[in-house]
Amino acid sequence: MTAKIIDGKAFAARVRAEVAGHVARLKADHGITPGLAVVLVGEDPASEVYVRSKGKSTVEAGMNSYEHKLDAATSEADLLALIGKLNADPAVHGILVQLPLPKHLDSDLVINAIDPAKDVDGFHISNVGLLGTGQKSMVPCTPLGCLMMLRDHHGSLAGMDAVVVGRSNIVGKPMAQLLLGDSCTVTIAHSRTKDLGEVCRRADILVAAVGRPEMIPGDWVKPGATVIDVGINRIERGGKTVLVGDVDFAGAAKVAGAITPVPGGVGPMTIACLLANTLTACCRANGLPEPE
Ligand code: NDP
Fold it and tell me: Are the C-beta atoms of 99 and 170 separated by less than 8 Å?
């Protein structure tokens, strides 16, 4: 068997075009332009790349992008003061604080200072609680993108066995909540899970969010399963730096029914979902119907 490749790049381009269309209508009909503020503290090179690409995509979708680059030594009080200003600014509908923050800053405190209605990353405890209880919330972008690809591929996910490897607050746990919300039978695996291969082999849907290059071999994949590879790992191969996922793509693609590639799978969907969340936040703030 050769797996169908789930083209996250093409899917994300469709989502972005839909968002851009909606933004254009918001402007024409209501004179409103959604705005996303991204806050970066320090000079982590990977974070700088992410922030730049988020800003560029925001502008391409017709939204306003506000970038706040703060010195690595910025105090917690100053960062909280900036968040307070952004919370109060009616032109800002979404606020994203790029993680990880420098060690002297308490990320939980900072994230929970964001107005939950503007928390487009969905990391505020209010949004986590709303998602966990099946209420309307801001849903974290990476798991939301994974769910959209799964729904697009399968239609209903009801009754499927889903295994999520990784239990982080930003990917693993919200992913599991979303799959549960779609009536999957969900297992969350992590570094202390026994017989991980055996657990993975039960999965109709296998989501890998670990951060270990190609740690999931093809023989952990159930024949015909759908594999969503969230991992982004930089490794040296053949004298070059290449990006690989948490799944051995070549091995898994021989067994799976469908699989996301790295790059070009989950990554592009994450940014598309950030734009969609900003649009949703803007519509909610203005009492307008939300995009589907
Ligand atoms: P974290 O480091 O926060 O979490 C990793 C999880 O993997 C932990 O729960 C950890 O378990 C588990 N784990 C580690 N080693 C093993 C192992 N040997 N067996 C089983 N489980 C293990 O990572 P994130 O969730 O933030 O990110 C995961 C990956 O996804 C990374 O590669 C990251 O770059 C990528 N990512 C990609 C995004 C995208 O847009 N495509 C967005 C966000 C992340 P334990 O809790 O027990 O330590």
Answer: yes
- Measure the CA–CA gap between 137 and 124, rounded to whole angstroms: 10
How large is the average pLDDT for residues 167-180?
A: 98
Residue 171 alpha carbon, nearest atom of ligand 1: 25
Select from 53, 190, 244 the residue to mutate for testing ligand 1; criterion: most ligand atoms less than 8 Å from CB. 190
Domains 30-116 and 141-267 share a fold: yes
pLDDT reading at 277 higher than 90? yes
Instruction: Indicate the average pLDDT of the chain.
Output: 97
Most informative mutation of 232, 246, 269, 277 for ligand 1 (most atoms within 8 A of CB)? 232
Binding residues for NADP(+): 166-168, 232
**Fold designation for 141-267:** Rossmann fold (3.40.50)
Active site annotation includes 135:
no
Report the topology of domain 30-116: Rossmann fold (3.40.50)
150 contact partners, CB below 8 Å, separation of at least 6 = 157, 179, 182, 205, 226, 228
Spans of all domains in the chain: 30-116, 141-267
Spell out which residues line ligand 1, taking CB within 6 angstroms: 142, 165-168, 170-172, 189-193, 196, 209-212, 230-233, 266-267, 270
Indicate the pTM of the whole model. 0.97
- Directed axis angle between helix 172-181 and helix 141-154, to 10°? 40
User: Would you state the pLDDT for residue 1?
Assistant: 63
- For residues 199 and 189, the answer to whether their CB atoms sit within 8 Å is yes
- ipTM > 0.95 for the complex: yes
Catalytic-role residue among 119, 121, 204, 229: 121
User: Which residue's C-alpha comes closest to atom 5 of ligand 1?
Assistant: 210
Q: What is the mean pLDDT of residues 76-99?
A: 98
